[in-house]
Design goal:
The protein is of the alpha/beta class and 482 residues long. It folds into 2 domains: 245 residues, Type I PLP-dependent aspartate aminotransferase-like (Major domain) (Aspartate Aminotransferase, domain 2); 112 residues, Aspartate Aminotransferase, domain 1. Helix content is 43%, strand content 12%. It has a 7-stranded mixed beta sheet with strand order 2-8-7-6-5-3-4, with helices on both faces. A hairpin with a 2-residue loop joins β11 and β12. It starts with a helix and ends in a 6-residue tail after the last helix. Bound molecules: pyridoxal-5'-phosphate. Pyridoxal-5'-phosphate binds next to α6.
Length: 482
C-alpha cells in the first residue's frame, strides 16, 4: 500500500513538475524575440492540421502533455510586450498563482459553508472597491466581466423604477436608457436581456474628445418622453473602448438626480484611474452614481476573469438576485447574511477574488497607482513619437492609455482607410505587433493600448518603425498615376 502511495505521489509530482516547467518556459518566452506574438494560420487550415478528436479510448497522461505543448504552441502570446490589441495584456505571476490555487481548491462562491475564506476575501475586495468609488455602505459581487456588470447596472435601474419587476416582469417597450454614442456594445446586450430592447437605448452625442455631451443627454431624455417612453437609466462610460474617453460623471449625475434616473458607470476599462491622485479626477463625481462596474482583468492585469460590480444600495442587488427560499439544498436561514449566492445571478461561481487579493496585498494601493501612472506615461511617449513623425497623425485627443492614430500621406487621391487597413493586416501577418484596427467616425485608425507590463519604449519604437515601414512599402508599390 505504502509503495502504491509512493508511486502515486511520484507520478503526481512528476506531472505537476512537467506543467510547472512549461509554465516557466511560456512566461520566460515573452521576452524571446524569436517567438512571434501570433503565428497566423487560417481557421480552415488549423482545423485540418490539428488533431482535435475526442477518442473512444483514453490516450494516457503523456499524451496530455503533448496536447498541452500543442496548445501552448498555437496560442496568441498575450504575455508578449508587443501584444497591445485589446485592453489587457501581459501576465501577473502572483495573480497566475492565485488562479492556479482557485482551480486547485475549486470553491464555489455561493455559500460561506463551501467557500469560507474565499467569501471573506471576495467581501474584502468588494468593500474596498465600494470605498474607492465613494460608496461607504456599498455592496456588490464579482461578475464575469464589464458586460455582465453593465447588465446588472441596468437590472438594478429596472428594479429601482419598478420594485416588483423581478417578480411580475417588465414591459420593456416603454422604458428608455441613455448611453454615449461611443459606449461599449454590451449595453445593447444588457437592454436585450433586461427587456427594454436595443431600440430603446438612446445613443447620446459626444464632444470632439469622445465624452458624452450633457446637453445632448437632456435633449435625448426629452425626446424619449415626447415619444411616450419612460427614461429610467443613464450609463456613463469611464474609459471608452476605442478612445479611452471619460464621460463627465458629475454633470450626468446632476441630470440623473433631477430626472430621478439610475446612474450606472461603466468603468470596466477606466476604473483603475481611481488609484492615482493624478488621474482620479477623470471619474470626478462617481460617488454620486448608483452603481459601477470595474474590470480588474483589464488594466490591473488579472488573468480573465476578474471583474467587480458595486452598488450603493445593497438591497437593490439583493432584490434582483432573489430566488425566494426555494434552494433549500444550498441556502439556509442561519447563513442568510453571509452567503454571496444571494447577491449574484450565478449559482456555481468561480473564486475570482483570490488572485486579485493576492496581487493587491503584494503591491498595495501605491503599486496600482504606479502602474496607472507608468502606463499613461508610456502612452504619452507613444503619442509624442506620433506627433513628431510626418507620416503619422493622432486621430483623437488622448485622455487615458488608448492611442488612436493613423499613417498618412500627402496624396488626396489615396484612400487612407484602405491604406491603414492594409498596414494593420500586414502587421498581423508579420506576427510581432498586435494592435486593434478600429474606427473613429468614418476613419480607420490603429489603436495600440498601453496595458501590459511587458510593453516598453523599445517595443513602442519597434512598433512605429514597422507601421512606417509597411506604410512606405505600400505607397511605393502603387503605380505613379494612381
Ligand atoms: C468600456 C467597456 N465596457 C465594457 C466592456 C466589456 O467588458 P468584458 O469584456 O469584461 O465583458 C468593455 C470591453 O472591452 C469595455 O471596453
Amino acid at each position: 500500500m505504502a509503495d502504491a502511495g509512493l508511486v502515486r505521489h511520484m507520478q503526481l509530482e512528476g506531472f505537476i513538475d512537467e506543467i510547472a516547467k512549461r509554465a516557466v518556459n511560456y512566461i520566460e518566452s515573452s521576452e524571446d524575440k524569436s517567438v512571434s506574438t501570433i503565428d497566423y494560420v487560417s481557421y480552415n487550415s488549423r482545423q485540418k492540421t490539428t488533431d482535435l478528436k475526442l477518442p473512444l479510448e483514453g490516450r494516457g497522461v503523456d499524451r496530455v502533455l503533448d496536447d498541452i505543448d500543442e496548445f501552448l504552441k498555437q496560442c496568441v502570446r498575450t504575455n508578449s510586450g508587443s501584444f497591445m490589441n485589446p485592453l489587457w495584456g501581459g501576465l501577473n505571476v502572483t495573480a497566475f498563482a492565485g488562479e492556479v490555487i482557485s482551480a486547485l481548491t475549486n470553491q464555489s462562491m455561493y455559500t460561506y459553508e463551501l467557500a469560507p475564506l474565499a467569501t471573506l476575501i471576495e467581501q474584502t475586495i468588494i468593500k474596498r472597491i465600494s470605498e474607492i468609488m465613494g460608496f461607504s455602505d456599498g455592496y456588490g459581487t464579482m461578475t464575469t466581466g464589464g458586460s455582465n456588470g453593465n447588465m446588472l447596472g441596468m437590472l438594478c435601474a429596472r428594479q429601482s423604477i419598478l420594485p416588483l419587476s423581478s417578480k411580475i416582469g417588465f414591459d420593456g417597450s416603454k422604458y428608455a436608457a441613455f448611453v454615449s454614442s461611443e459606449s461599449h456594445y454590451s449595453v445593447l446586450m444588457s437592454a436585450n436581456v433586461v427587456g427594454i430592447g436595443h431600440q430603446n437605448v438612446f445613443k447620446v452625442a459626444c464632444d470632439d474628445k469622445g465624452r458624452m455631451n450633457p446637453e445632448s443627454l437632456v435633449e435625448e431624455i426629452n425626446r424619449s418622453k415626447s415619444e411616450g417612453l419612460i427614461p429610467f437609466c443613464i450609463i456613463a462610460t469611464s474609459g471608452t473602448t476605442v478612445r479611452g474617453s471619460f464621460d463627465p460623471i458629475r454633470e450626468l449625475a446632476e441630470i440623473a438626480h433631477r430626472e430621478s434616473l439610475w446612474l450606472h458607470v461603466d468603468a470596466a476599462w477606466g476604473g483603475s484611474c481611481m488609484f492615482s491622485s493624478k488621474y482620479s479626477h477623470l471619474m470626478d463625481g462617481v460617488d454620486l452614481a448608483d452603481s459601477v462596474c470595474w474590470d480588474a482583468h483589464k488594466m490591473m492585469g488579472m488573468p480573465l476573469i476578474c471583474s467587480a460590480f458595486v452598488v450603493k444600495n445593497k438591497n437593490i442587488l439583493r432584490n434582483i438576485c432573489t430566488h425566494g427560499d426555494v434552494a433549500h439544498y444550498l441556502f439556509h436561514e442561519d447563513s442568510k447574511e453571509v452567503d454571496l449566492g444571494r447577491y449574484s445571478l450565478q449559482c456555481g461561481r468561480r473564486n475570482d477574488a483570490l488572485k486579485l487579493w493576492l496581487a493587491w496585498r503584494e503591491i498595495g494601493d501605491s503599486g496600482w497607482a504606479k502602474m496607472v501612472e507608468d502606463y499613461c506615461h508610456l502612452a504619452q511617449y507613444l503619442e509624442e513619437k506620433i506627433i513628431q513623425n510626418d507620416h503619422l497623425e493622432m486621430m483623437s485627443h488622448r485622455q487615458w492609455s488608448n492611442v488612436c492614430f493613423r499613417y498618412i500621406v500627402e496624396n488626396e487621391e489615396l484612400d487612407l482607410n484602405k491604406l491603414n487597413t492594409e498596414i494593420r493586416d500586414r502587421l498581423f501577418r508579420e506576427g510581432e505587433y498586435l494592435v486593434s484596427r478600429s474606427n473613429i467616425g468614418e476613419n480607420v485608425i490603429l489603436r495600440p493600448v498601453i496595458s501590459n507590463p511587458m510593453t516598453t519604449t523599445e517595443v513602442i519604437d519597434g512598433f512605429l518603425q514597422r507601421v512606417i515601414h509597411h506604410g512606405n512599402e505600400i505607397i511605393s508599390s502603387i503605380p505613379e498615376n494612381q
